[in-house]
Write a structure and sequence with these properties.
The chain is an alpha/beta fold. It has ten helices and nine strands. It has a six-stranded parallel β-sheet, with helices on both faces. The structure holds pantoate.
Length: 286
């Protein structure tokens, strides 16, 4: 495993790989690696010749009142985990190199980056899209691996790649969960013991909505009411949103159309910790 911090060196190594007709898989992360990230690295390992994992806590995707400073960082532990999972390169650029003084070019998107997570975190997806485009330019992968847990991020990046003609294929890996169903997230460490016990209610709410849909309930207002009442039953949980939306446009649905992909996503705060989760309802077979 080679650790790289220089942008030019990363590009040269990627050029070398491409020149030898090796398939490059890229896993962008902000570090604090957990099983969710490791499953992306392992999938890239299975599908590609060279696997690059980046660790970069991206200041551009945090608002001034968010947790950029206290975001968990442990490069030594991450290095061991990434190597064990099969990463060939660890790309750890410096913020001053990614965003040199006077940096002024950002990727912004109409519509899908302004709703749901984007409505609550208005500059978040601009930061995500900008850094991911830069990281793609530096690592030159054939395959980009993303986790379904950040489902809106997947939709936003898919749209960016399509509309900006970026020559990379996106592979979305399923959410990895703790044994009680809580989606793995670097932010779970912020939960108090009491809130950690309550947090599985997120996935329970999603699972129960999926069961209701499978049972033939497709009217979204009543599904949302049931979800609100289940999620709201945990004391002290503040619901930011419950979204029953089209898988491509992210527009809210009145009735679930089983011929299209539907996303059920939610965000809730447990004390000061904000968690998100989702399930995807794939189109029913004809
Ligand atoms: O999902 C994340 O960890 C980040 O948003 C990403 C994709 C690494 C960009 O900073």
């Amino acid at each position: 495993m080679k650790s790289v911090s220089s942008l030019m060196e990363m590009q040269a190594l990627a050029d070398q790989s491409r020149g030898s007709h090796r398939k490059i898989g890229f896993v962008p992360t902000m570090g604090s690696l957990h099983e969710g990230h490791l499953s992306l690295i392992r999938t890239a390992r299975e599908q590609c010749d060279d696997v690059i994992t980046s660790i970069f806590v991206n200041p551009a995707q945090f608002a001034p009142d968010e947790d950029y400073e206290k975001y968990p960082r442990d490069i030594q532990k991450d290095t061991v985990l990434a190597v064990d999972a099969g990463s060939d390169y660890l790309f750890i650029p410096a913020a001053a190199d990614i965003y040199p003084p006077g940096f002024s070019t950002f990727v912004t998107m109409d519509g899908i980056s302004a709703v749901w997570e984007g409505a609550i975190r208005p500059t978040h997806f601009r930061g995500v899209a900008t850094v991911v485009l830069k990281l793609l330019q530096l690592t030159k992968p054939h395959m980009l691996y993303l986790g379904q847990k950040d489902v809106q991020q997947c939709v936003v990046l898919r749209r960016m790649v399509k509309e900006l003609n970026v020559d990379v294929e996106i592979f979305v890996c399923p959410t990895i969960r703790e044994s009680d169903g809580l989606a793995m997230s670097s932010r779970n460490v912020y939960l108090s013991l009491e809130d950690r016990k309550k947090a599985p209610i997120l996935f329970q709410t999603l699972k129960s909505a999926r069961e209701r849909i499978d049972a033939g309930i497709h009217e979204c207002a009543s599904l949302r009411r049931e979800m609100e009442s289940l999620l709201g039953s945990a004391a002290g949980v503040h619901i930011d949103y419950i979204a029953i939306i089209d898988g491509e446009t992210l527009q809210p649905l009145d009735v679930i159309d089983r011929s299209r992909q539907t996303i059920i996503a939610l965000a809730a705060r447990f004390g000061t910790t904000r968690l998100i989760d989702n399930v995807i309802i794939e189109p029913a077979l004809p």
